[in-house]
Backbone:
């Protein structure tokens, strides 16, 4: 894995963590949307899928 690829994956992870945290906070403030844990887990699963795709595409 090249340095550029590692930096892209790191950036993707950091942005993904911000998104997961933001979704968890928003749903926590408005419980009528859906349970906070369900949203955060779904977003984390999406993050794992994106990172896995990028990492496998770069070999």
Residues:
């Amino acid at each position: 894995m090249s340095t550029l690829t590692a930096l892209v994956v790191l950036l993707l992870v950091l942005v993904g963590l911000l998104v997961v945290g933001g979704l968890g906070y928003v749903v926590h403030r408005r419980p009528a949307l859906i349970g906070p844990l369900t949203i955060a887990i779904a977003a984390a699963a999406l993050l794992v899928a994106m990172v896995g795709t990028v990492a496998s595409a770069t070999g």
The helical segments are 3-29, 36-57. The chain has two helices and no strands. The mean pLDDT is 82. Residues 35 and 47 are 19 Å apart (CA to CA).
